[in-house]
Every structure is written in C-alpha cells, then in structure tokens.
Amino acid sequence: MASSSGNDDDLTIPRAAINKMIKETLPNVRVANDARELVVNCCTEFIHLISSEANEICNKSEKKTISPEHVIQALESLGFGSYISEVKEVLQECKTVALKRRKANSRLENLGIPEEELLRQQQELFAKVSE
User: Fold this and answer.
1) Domain span including residue 71
2) What is the value of pTM for the model shown?
3) Is the C-alpha dihedral spanning 104, 108, 109, 110 positive or negative?
4) Above 60 in pLDDT, residue 8?
5) Does residue 77 have a pLDDT over 80?
C-alpha cells in the first residue's frame, strides 16, 4: 500500500509486539530476522486493508466513527469471513474487561475518599507491615 506522504515507517506495528506474538504462538521455533520483518509488513498491510474497507463501510452508512460492526463487515466483504467468529469472541472479551475497569473505577469514586488519601493510607499500611 503506497503512501504519498512517505510516512509508511510511522504506520507499522512495533517490532517488540510482533516478536512477543511470534514467541507466544511459536515458543519452540526460531524465526529469522527477515521473516520477522516480513510478518510486520504483512500485519501492517492487513490492518491498512481492513481499516480502509471499514472506513468505506462507515462512510456509506453515514457514520463518523468506525464501529466493530464496520470492521466485521469489512472482514466479510474482503473474504476473511472465517475470522469473524474469533473476532466476535475477542470483541466480547474486550467489552468484559472494559466493563470491569469501569466498575472498579466507579467503586473507588463511590468511596468518597480522594485517590491521594487512599494512597496515603496504603503507604501507612505498608509501613506498619514493614515494622
């Protein structure tokens, strides 16, 4: 995917993230550096392809923000329908994690104690344990 601005280097996945995924997926396999670079380029191109298609779908539906449904439709229209069930599972996991975070944050807010005070109390407790 060519870019007229020449900023393609700014639009890549961090190599450390790719290395971690490769290591987790294939823990007992050695992967050459040029193969890792190829994986980075493939991942970046895939993301560009899906994002562009999702953006077109979003625009056609007269929306301003790409939603998960736009991404799922993009996968289908580009022939990646076999990924959709797994994508939906991951989406549900992300929603669950986000909900848990919001609940945890609201619990802290409902205590009515400023975060600084809670940190101070925590430090006092740590100090008592250390004695």
Assistant:
1) 10-79
2) 0.66
3) positive
4) no
5) yes
